[in-house]
Structures are given as C-alpha cells and as structure tokens.
Design a protein that fits this description.
alpha/beta, eight-stranded parallel beta barrel, two-stranded antiparallel ribbon, about 15% strand, Aldo/keto reductase
C-alpha cells in the first residue's frame, strides 16, 4: 500500500482510505463490519474515514471497536461534524456549541483521545464562519484534533475560510477537502482542484465507484444484483437510484474491455482513475464484504497510461459532468444518469 502526503501538510495517508458511510450500523451488522476493517488493515490501509451522522453514531462505534487492538499511532482516523445528529436546534451545523459537543461525543464513540482529521461535513450558512474556524482551532490547540478539513465546500467557501483564518491569526488551517469525485462526476476540476493545489489542500475523494455503478455489476435492462445497495434497506436505494439510468449503465459497460486489457477489475480501474489526478491524496472505498476491500485495495500503486485515460473519456463522452455549480449538490445529476422513480 502506497502512502501520499495530505496536501502540503506533514500527514501521510494510505492511497486507499476505508470509509463506512451507508454500511456499518446500517447495511451490515457488527461482525461483517469488523471483518471488512480487518481486511483493510491486512491490505495495508491505515486511513479510516467516518462521521458522527453515519448510522447515528453506530459507524464510529464499530470503527473504534475494530481499531482498538491496533497501535493508535499506526492509523489515521478521520471523522466529520455538521449534519443532524438529533432533533434539537443545536444538534447540527457548525456552531461552537455543536462542534465542541460533537467532537467529544465522536472521541468517546471511537475510543480515542484525538482524531487525526476533523472535517466540516458541509458548509453552514447559519453560523458565522469565524465562530466555526475559532472552534476548530481551539480543538487543535487542545490536542483533540490534529488536522482540519472540509467536505463538499465550494471553491469560494474554501477561499473565504483560508482568508479569514489568516486574518484571525489562527494557527490551524484547512489541509483537506473531501469531495465526491469519479470518472462521471468531475465537478471539482474547474474550480476546487486548482484552488486546493495552489493552497496545499489534499483531496480525500469519496464515491470513486459512483455507488458501485463503475464496478459494472449493474447491467442495463436487468434487475439489480441480489444483496447489492440498490435493493438493500436503509438509505442506499435513494442514493444509487440517481446513477442507474439505462444510458449511463450502457456506457459503463463499455469500460469493461478497457479494464480487461489493462489487467484490472472495473472497480480497480475506477479507483486508479481518481488517484491519477494531481492533488488527490486518497480515495475512499466502502464495502459490505471483506473480498471487496481486498479487490479495491489492489488499485493502489496503479498508474494508467494516457491512451487508457483517453479511451475512458471516449466511452463516457457527454455523460461526464464537469459543472462546478454542482460542487455541493451531489443529487443534481444529468439527465440520462437516473432511473425514473
């Protein structure tokens, strides 16, 4: 497993990060979740991503339990704050009150004294940005957080936070951004990526497999495979429905000959594609079975030649979305992507 620096910070992450959105505590039980995390460790993955809102805290608990036997300094743990974790008006957002309380609750669930990376899960228009940044900075000063990041923020929002942190004289600054990024969804390329490269902010990208669609397991005109996210309970079907349109699935099947010729599975091809982008520090994978973890981790260290990259673009064509206005609107997909409700 290769490792990369997180932007210009001194922190190194494994090229593949294991994440547990929509899986642990929601789609899979405790034992399969523990097996997946053990498989990640066996594959050399050292970076693990979660959030307080995932399965309302259960995902953090499972991750903490699985990593308890591991030497703490040998792994990097990332979690997030902002999305609702309760019904109260202060159970969400990026106010000082919620950030402090949410961080302490996450540390308890994870069973650790600190997290390596603490991320603002979304931008909060309802809280003054200086309040948010000072609260994060205080957590860094207290040693409860080592590095700061954001997720699904636009380029102007990131720019504003960097400038304000400088004006306030804060010691800590944003060093990580967690956007959705894959062969189909490239909306960070026009604005977010150039800004982050200039400012030394590393990308830890999620959904490199586009909810599993880029694995090729969803066939046009056929029912979704048994046990897949599309037919599972919970919130999975809501998210994956947006990438199950017939035209999209047909284009994705056109990638199979390219993957075969490269000696890669379609999943490995898709993950390696995200890692080839300058500025990407790590790609987050999720799994419901250990063998998925092992396969996906095999994408680490893979370099894709230019003719293969051109072939991917030729297959996907006009279904690739590069609209920067959609940076924080992950459900706003192109016509032709979605299966009718």
């Amino acid at each position: 497993m290769d490792h990369r620096r997180l932007g210009r910070s001194g922190l190194h992450l494994s090229e593949i990060t294991y994440g547990n959105w929509l899986t642990h505590g929601e789609l899979v039980g405790r034992e399969p979740a523990l097996e997946c995390i053990r498989a990640a460790l066996d594959a050399g993955i050292t970076t693990f991503d979660t959030a307080d809102v995932y399965a309302q805290g259960a995902a953090e608990q499972v991750l903490g339990e699985a990593l308890r036997p591991v030497r703490r300094s040998s792994v990097e743990i990332a979690t997030k704050v902002c999305l609702p974790t309760g019904d109260g008006p202060n159970d969400r957002g990026l106010s000082r009150k919620h950030i402090m309380e949410a961080c302490h609750a996450s540390l308890t669930r994870l069973g650790t004294d600190y997290v390596d990376l603490y991320q603002a899960h979304r931008f909060d228009d309802g809280t003054p940005l200086d309040e948010t940044l000072i609260a994060f900075d205080d957590l860094v000063r207290q040693g409860k957080v080592l590095y700061l990041g954001v997720s699904e923020w636009t380029a102007p929002q990131i720019r504003g936070a960097l400038d304000l942190a400088g004006e306030l004289g804060l010691r800590s600054r944003i060093v990580a951004n967690q956007p959705q990024y894959n062969m189909l969804w490239r909306v960070i390329e026009p604005e977010v990526l150039p800004l982050c490269r200039d400012e030394g902010i590393g990308q830890v990208v999620f959904q490199p497999l586009a909810q599993g669609v880029l694995t090729g397991k969803y066939q046009p005109g056929r029912p979704a495979p048994e046990g897949s996210r599309a037919v599972s309970g919970g919130r999975g079907p809501r998210f994956i429905r947006r990438v199950l349109g017939g035209e999209l699935l047909e284009r994705v099947q056109g990638l199979r000959p390219l993957a075969d010729a490269a000696g890669l599975s379609m999943a490995q091809l898709a993950i390696a594609w995200t890692l080839r982008q300058d500025g990407v520090s790590s790609a987050i994978i999720g799994a419901t079975r250990p063998e998925q973890v092992t396969e996906n981790a095999g994408a680490a260290g893979t370099r894709l030649p230019d003719d293969l990259l051109a072939g991917i673009d030729g297959v996907l064509g006009d279904l690739v979305d590069r609209d920067p206005a959609k940076t924080a609107r992950m459900m706003d997909v192109m016509q032709g992507w979605s299966r009718p409700a």
